[in-house]
Amino acid sequence: MTEKPIDLDQHRGLSAQRATESRRLLSEVEAHEAKLHRLRVEAEEQFVALPAATWEEAAMKAKYLLRLYAETLAGGDARTRRLIAAVLEDFERLAEYP
After folding, report:
1. What angle do CA 76, 30, 11 make, to 5 degrees?
2. Do 28 and 67 meet the contact criterion of CB atoms below 8 Å apart?
């Protein structure tokens, strides 16, 4: 018996190693997507449960909603995507001034 663990991946062919790595990466991506989904649900529940107390909070909700909508426009209307980007830039610029 040896003290070092044996790396079994080295004893397999290149295509088998790539397939294993692909499965591992896909599993990681799926886990991250599930976590992101849970976090989004939590955030959205908070947004709905409590009304905004300030303009800054209202803008934060609007930015989230616009980004969510923009994601659904992946290959959609370029004018709408530019408008959303402009509004988000306005929010960022105006947030710098108290």
Report:
1. 125
2. no
For the chain (98 residues), the mean pLDDT of every run of 10, in chain order, is 70 79 94 95 91 88 88 77 87 80
In the block, tokens 């209307």 appear at 77
Query: Torsion angle of alpha carbons 14, 20, 24, 29, nearest 10°?
Result: 80
Residue 24 is encoded by which pair of tokens? 């591992």
CB 9 within 8 A of CB 24: no
In single-letter form, the type of residue at position 2 comes to T
Residue 2 included in any domain: no
Q: How many domains are there within the chain?
A: 2
On whether residue 1 sits in a domain, the answer given is no
Q: Are residues 56 and 93 in the same domain?
A: yes
Q: How far apart are CA 13 and CA 24, in angstroms?
A: 17
pTM equals 0.61
DSSP state of 76: S
